[in-house]
């Protein structure tokens, strides 16, 4: 089998069969209506990648409840039936174009900078997030200090993910991706410096990953086995790009090991460069490293090693050689593209045909008047 055949062969994630191993990474858009409805422009936008050959489309983060989850104004939701109907138009169009589509469900937590339902934010602990709000997405100045969630709040958070997953299934999505990455609420529980809790959700890595596991199990139970469920995990965050897990490989073993037992069908990991060691200077090496002849595992390899689940890798993989390599090495089953996809909605077709790929030009996508927007860091959302 040729390298090209491997990149473009069929793959299965849970109950979803995908025509190739190339997906569109989830990226914040803020192109919905103020009421959170997907628009005709979004139908056209997502469908363009399906027509360009992408086998899998993962949507931008969708808020799952009408309480604390919304992160940005003009972010789409999937709370009400009218929102479900709007998403169904996107889903039907993408599927007619030959791709499969997952809904990413996102609770912004303390990083919310635009919520039409409430005026406060919540987090595992009352810790002000690092950095400042993103003006590109309508925010300004420091993030507000969040309210520490109660056990009742946690129950409501889980319920929101469950209800949203069921609505996504009703809308015709092929699956859902739970957003456990990039500094949003679930990642706030996972992160040591944003989680100061002393109950069963704080302290050890086993406790900090608990909510992610509970959400995953609850969603799986709600949607059944015939609907694909995955989760996205990262070290870096939209407001702290360089963060690394303090426990390094031990944290990876615990986090991915627990998620591997949570009823999930895949784990989607994102790093700045997906092929680089997760922990610099060879720190946090695993037992698999010696077999591969190097001194440090990528996040993708750690996820696959400890979860025994299919892995989606994201992070500057627009170079076809890099994309092929991470799959050939067995570190990932699917790759997703952010900037490379924005520059080439037909990336798959171009690579198949040996055509030259266009370079990403941020001024064409990131202008203040752009309706479809993309965050500056690859795959971060």
From TrEMBL:
Q: Which InterPro entries match?
A: Aldolase_TIM (IPR013785), NADH_flavin_oxidoreductase (IPR051799), OxRdtase_FMN_N (IPR001155)
Keyword Oxidoreductase part of the UniProt annotation: yes
| Top-level taxon in the UniProt lineage | Bacteria
Q: Where is the signal peptide?
A: none
Which intervals of the chain form a coiled coil?
Answer: none
- Name any one Pfam family assigned in the record: Oxidored_FMN
Q: Which residues form the NADH:flavin oxidoreductase/NADH oxidase N-terminal domain?
A: 7-355
Query: Does the keyword section mention ATP-binding?
Result: no
SUPFAM superfamilies hit by this protein: FMN-linked oxidoreductases
Q: Please give the Gene3D superfamilies that the UniProt record associates with this protein.
A: Aldolase class I (3.20.20.70)
Q: Name one GO molecular function term.
A: FMN binding
Q: Mind listing the UniProt keywords for this protein, alphabetically?
A: Flavoprotein, Oxidoreductase
Protein name per its UniProtKB record = NADH:flavin oxidoreductase
Q: Which organism is it from?
A: Bacillus vallismortis
